[in-house]
Structure formats: structure tokens, C-alpha cells
Amino acid sequence: MNRAATNPPPSPIATGLRGRCPACGEGHLFRGFLAFEPACEACGQDFSAFDSADGPAFFVMSVTGFVVAGTALWMEFTYEPPVWVHALVAGSLAIGLSLALVRPLKGVLAAVQFVNKAEQGRFR
Q: Membrane spanning segments where (predicted)?
């Protein structure tokens, strides 16, 4: 008996953040850092239709830009550091936040796409 027949589907947010299969919550969603697995090793769900496109990049840039700009303003008004300190802190923070956020956000968007049965738009 499959999981869908006995239990409600797992939360798309929780499974996406953990990088797990949105259908069963058990199998891995990613192969490597950002590439999707071809299918879930636990339930066999096909991941080939998942396409998050530029969605994760938009959210990563928005969150990272807000945090980096806020940190730069706070540093400037509090400590007045030289420009090289701003560049070092802002650059490190931007790269670190981007790398930390892109995989979980890609997982969440793929899980939400699965739960809502989203497909490519088609013109008739």
C-alpha cells in the first residue's frame, strides 16, 4: 500500500527545505548541489517535470539584497569602516547567503509545484 493512500501528503515547505521527495517525504530530491534526481528512490515519483526556472534566483536575490544592504547601512552608521571592509563583509555575506538559500528555495518551489500540479502554460 502506498503512502498517499494511508497518510496525508507531507508539507511542501518541510520537504522542500529538507530536500526530500514532495510525494512521500522520504527520498532525496537533489543529486549534487542543485540538480534534481531523475526519480525518488523511495516511492519512484518522477522528477523530470520539475522546473523551478528563475524562481529560486529571484527569492535568493531579494532576501540577500535586503540583508546585505541592511548590514552595510548598519555598519556605516555604527562603525564608519573603510570601503574595503564594506566590500569584504558585503561580498562574503552575499556569496554565503546565496549559497545557503538557493538549494532550500529550489526545493520548496519544486514541492509547491508538485502539490499544485503546476505545468507549463500552453497556448491553444
A: 57-77, 83-102
Give φ, ψ of 31 to 5 degrees: -115, 115
In a domain, 98, yes or no: yes
Entry field: residues in the chain: 124
Domain that holds residue 21: 3-115
Q: Which three cell numbers stand for residue 27?
A: 527520498
- Residue 34's region, left for phi above 0, alpha for psi from -120 to 50, else beta, is alpha
In a domain, 52, yes or no: yes
Stretch 84-92: mean pLDDT: 98
For the segment 88-98, the average pLDDT, to the nearest whole number, is 98
pTM: 0.87
